[in-house]
Amino acid sequence: MKDIQDQADNRQVAINKVGIRNIRYPIRVLDKAYQAQHTVADINMYVHLPEHFRGTHMSRFIEVLNRYQREIDIRNLDEILEALRSTLKSEAAYLEMSFPYFIEKAAPISRAVSIMEYHCSMAATQHRNGEKDFVLTVCVPIMTLCPCSKEISDRGAHNQRSLVTTSVRMNTLVWIEDIINLVEQAAVCDLYALLKREDEKYITERAYDNPAFVEDIVREIAVKLQADERLTWFTVESENMESIHNHNAYAFVEGKRKT
User: How far apart are CA 219 and CA 111, in angstroms?
Assistant: First the structure.
């Protein structure tokens, strides 16, 4: 049959990324407590398309994905990217995966155990010349309390539910749990799926005793990331969903490990 995609194109425009998006697929993620965790990811796959080709072969992306079935994890991303580049005869291949990750977490006082969900993503790139890139992103919900509100109020202070998004490049393995723990330790208070009354009392009082601006949160996390020898680069951003304003507070930091 005639292959239309392989026809020549004379517009002299190379395409940086072409491929498929939003494929739901089972994957396996490294789990610090249980070695591996099976979850479902939204996957994007792309390759670079030279200017002289009219199109790429979309079905071949799925064929590559199907070779690995449920065995996709951080340890074979490079192999998958190599298969993409080879199969589609491309200079560069890109793989993005976003997925829910689950951790057992005990409440602070009652120690009641429940499952917390965290949204994560991985973005990997491989070029024919040997250049590679890998970025891990972890989103962690936390609680904050406004220092200004506490300072000016006779009773109480307004708080926020905040989402901290941290992305890292690494020179050795960094567990998802490590990023989550680092963020939660820098928070006014971390969140839980299940709380008893004694837990609620503890969290409310802990937040009141440790107020922090959105700027405080990203700076505190940045200091910890800069000191981590496993990391080479990071970004951290926090968005506070305000409880008394019709807008959100936001802060962002990008940095590298201090040497």
Answer: 30
Q: Do you know the residue count of the chain?
A: 259
Query: Helix 77-87 to helix 58-68 angle, to the nearest 10 degrees?
Result: 150
User: Could you give the domains of the chain?
Assistant: 15-127 (3.10.270.10), 131-259 (3.10.270.10)
Pair of tokens at residue 114 = 């429940």
Reported pTM: 0.90
Of 80-89, 116-125, 180-189, 203-212, where does the model show the most confidence?
Answer: 116-125
| Cα dihedral value 74, 76, 77, 81, nearest 10 | 180
Letter for the amino acid at 84?
Answer: L
For residue 141, give the nearest of 247, 217, 31, 28 by alpha carbon.
217
Residue tagged 């951003």 (tokens): 237
Tokens standing for residue 51? 């200017």
The pLDDT tens digits of the residues spanning 198-251 come to: 999 999 999 999 999 999 999 999 999 999 999 999 999 999 988 888 899 999
